[in-house]
Amino acid sequence: LKEKTEDLKRERRLAEDLLHQMLPKSVAKQLRKCQKVEAENYDQVTIFFSDIVGFTSIAASCTPLQVVEMLNNLYVCFDSRIESYDVYKVETIGDAYMVVSGLPERNGSKHADEIAKMSLDLVAAVRQVVIPHMPMGRLQLRAGIHTGPCVAGVVGYKMPRYCLFGDTVNTASRMESTSLPQKIHISSATYDALLTDDAYEIEPRGEIEVKGKGRMKTYWLLGNKNYSVQN
Question: What is the pTM of this model?
Answer without folding.
Answer: 0.85
